[in-house]
Design goal:
Helices cover about 80% and strands about 0% of the residues. The chain contains seven helices and no strands. Helix 4 (about 50-75) runs antiparallel to helix 5 (about 80-105), helix 4 (about 50-75) packs parallel to helix 7 (about 125-140) and helix 5 (about 80-105) packs antiparallel against helix 6 (about 110-125). The radius of gyration is 17 Å and the shape is elongated.
């Protein structure tokens, strides 16, 4: 594939990630979005539809993961990298979602910083920022 086309597709996919982020409040149900934008340390966690909220986090994670896997494919063109990345995305999702749900619904202390950062890892394509340099470093070795 022509290098210019490859770069163009990666930029287009990156723009798709930006669009997901830009329209997050319109596309996804997230009662914690405005909560964390306010002075949340003095406020109780807002009432929410838990099933809808977890479902929306899952959909958003999947959208980001699929686009991220497409970016990884365009950069590295390696089935083994995509397979490993898919497994990592799955494992990270399950682990983070379990901790997120525990903190949200069962934690007596309501550790807000942990809740904020775990939610951030679930709804943002941060794993891509780790995986690209890791695979690039591995490929150059």
């Amino acid at each position: 594939m022509n290098k210019i086309i490859k770069i163009g597709v990666v930029l287009l996919l990156t723009f798709l990630l930006v669009l997901i982020r830009f329209f997050e409040s319109d596309l996804f149900y997230d009662p914690l979005y405005y909560y964390f934008k306010s002075d949340y340390t003095n406020l109780p966690i807002p009432e929410m539809d838990a099933i809808k909220f977890i479902g929306n986090i899952t959909v958003r994670f999947l959208m980001n993961a699929i686009v991220s896997l497409a970016i990884l494919w365009m950069i590295f063109k390696s089935r083994s990298i995509i397979k490993l990345s898919s497994i990592l995305y799955g494992v990270f999702f399950v682990l983070l979602m379990m901790v997120f749900c525990f903190l949200l619904f069962y934690s007596a202390s309501k550790n807000l910083f942990a809740l904020f950062y775990i939610r951030r890892f679930l709804i943002q394509p941060l794993f891509l920022l780790v995986l690209i340099p890791a695979f690039y470093f591995h490929k150059t070795k």
